[in-house]
Amino acid sequence: MRWGVVQFPGSCDERDALHACGLTGEARLIWHEDRDLGQVDAIVVPGGFSYGDYLRAGAIARFSPAMEAVTEFAAAGGPVLGICNGFQVLCEAGLLPGALLRNEELRFICRQVDLIVEGSVGEFGPLSGTKVADSSEGSETLSIPVKHGEGRYWAPDDVLDEIEAKGQVAYRYAPGQNPNGSVRDIAGVRNEAGNVLGLMPHPEHAVDALTGSMDGLRIFEAVAGARA
Amino acid sequence: MARVRVLIRPKEGILDPQGKAVEQALPALGFEGIEHVRVGRMVELEAEDPAQLGELCEKLLANPLIEDYEIEQVDA
Question: A with B: how many residue pairs have Cβ under 8 Å apart?
Answer without folding.
Answer: 31
